[in-house]
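Sample entry was shown:
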Amino acid sequence: MPRRRDVSNSCCLPLHLKEDNARFGLLAALILLYLLCGAVVFSALEHPSELQAHRRWDQQLANFTEQNSINLKSLHVLLKQYEEASAAGIRVDKLRPRWDFSGAFYFVATVVSTIGFGMTTPVTVAGKIFLIFYGLLGCAATILFFNLFLERIITMLAYIMRWCHERQLRRSGVGGEEARSEDDSLEGWKPSVYYVMLILGIAALLIACSASALYSAMEDWDYFESLYFCFVAFSTIGFGDVVSSQRESYKAQEAYRLGNCLFILMGVCCIYSLFNVISIIIKQTLNWILGKLDCSKAQCPCRGRPYRRRAPGKRFTNASVETVCDSETDAGQRLSGEMISVNDFMANKVSLAILQKQLSETAHGNPRQSHVRQNGFSGGVGAFAIMNNRLQETSVDR
C-alpha cells in the first residue's frame, strides 16, 4: 500500500522557502534601487565641482610653469613624487608621526573598529601580511564586543523604561498591591522597540554634537564639517578625507587625544547599536510589504491552520527542513515567551521578538531560560543573535 504523504509539511515547506527568498530578493532590489538613487544624487552634486577643480588646477599649473619657466614634464615628475611622499605621511604642513607608538596605536584602533581612515597604511610586505592576521582576529573580537555592548545597552534601557513606566502608574493611582492583581498593567507591559531606537538615536546625536564642539575648537573645522566627520567615523565608513588628531601639536594635547578616543569609542558603540535596532525595523517593513503583496495573490493553505506546538525537548536536526509553521512561529514563541501564529508572522511580530524578549525579561527581572545558554552565549540581539539562535535551533541533544 503506498505511503501517505504528509500534507502539512509539504505545503508549509515551500512557503517557508518562498518567504525567505522573497524577503531576500526584495531587500536586494531595494538596496540596488537605493544605490542607484544615491549615485544619481551624488553625481549631480559633486561632478560639476570635480570638473571645476580640474579646470582650476590646469590653469594654475599652466600659469606657474609660464611664470617660472619650468618644464611641465619635470614638474609632473616632482608632483608625482610628492604624491608618493604624501601617502607615506609627509606633507607640507607638519603632521604627527605616523608610526611612533601613539600613531601606531591610533592605526590599530581604526583597524579593529573597521573604521580604516586610510591616512596611515602599512607599506612593507611584512606589515601588510601581519595586518591580515591581526585584522582577522581583531575585527572579529571587536564585533563581538559591540554585540555584547548592545546587550548591556538594552539591559540599561529596559530598567530605565520600566522605572519610568512604574512612575507613570503611580501617578495614575496604579501601584502597590493593585499592581499585582490579575489584570496587572505593569506585568503585562513590554518596553517598546521604537522607544529604544529613539533613545539610541538621541544618545548618538548628543555624542556627535558634543564631539563636534570639541573638534571645531581643536581642529579649526567648521561645525558642520565636524558633524560630517563624526558620522563618517562613528558609522565606521572612514573615508579619511577629514581625520582628527593629526597635527603635530595641540593645546592640552594628551587630554584632547584621550577625549578624541573616548568620543570615537562611544560614538561607534551607539551607532552600531542604533544600526542593529534599525535593521529590525527594516525587516519588519519588508515583512509588511510582502504581506501586502500576498494580499493580491491566492491565500496560502497554511493560513488559518491552528498552530502546532512542538513537543518539549525536540530540536531540528537540519535547518533546511524547517517549516514556517514550526520554525518561524515556534522560534518567535521561544524568543518572546508568547504564542505567535502564522498570521502574527505575516503581521511582522516575529521580527521584533528577539529584541522584545530581552527588553521584556530585563524589565521584569525574569531569569533567562536554560536552553538559551546551552551553547555558551545568551540570545542577544542583532546579527550575532540571528546566527547564535540558528545554531541553537539546529543543535542535537546527545
